[in-house]
Amino acid sequence: MIALAEQNGTTVESLFENRLAVCFRILGYKVEDLGQGAGRNPDGIFTYRGNDGSYAVIYDAKSSADPYRLRTGDERQFEDYINQHIGELQRRGFDNMALLKPSSCLAVSYSG
């Protein structure tokens, strides 16, 4: 992915996020790109409307050389994303919403 990013004159993070949006579109979702690195915004929102209901998913992708670990401060960021977009999504008729944090690699810690 590093070579492909360099070939396209972009960063690995941007390439990962762009490819993720393409994947959601291929799966039939409507995707709103909100922009990687655009302040305190998620990367995008993908939505579904069908005869069986509708939903919206706010997503913020994370790509890095090291495995991604959820940090204490991430909870506040996720809350900000939700609060920033929930009103508009409800006005547009989405009653079911979720937050997704896809990553190229997640670090998992187990305590037992």
Give an overview of the whole structure.
The model has no long low-confidence stretch (mean pLDDT 85). 37% of the residues lie in helices and 21% in strands. It has helices spanning 2-7, 12-26, 72-91; strands at residues 30-33, 44-50, 53-59, 96-100. It is built from three helices and four strands, in the order ααβββαβ. The protein has 112 residues and is an alpha+beta fold. Strands 1-2-3-4 form a four-stranded mixed sheet, sandwiched between helices. The protein starts with a helix and ends in a 12-residue tail after the last strand. The protein is globular, with a radius of gyration of 15 Å.
Using only C-alpha atoms, the radius of gyration works out to: 15 Å
Number of helices: 3
How many strand segments? 4
Largest sheet: 4 strands, mixed
Structural class: alpha+beta
Instruction: Give the SSE string.
Output: HHEEEHE
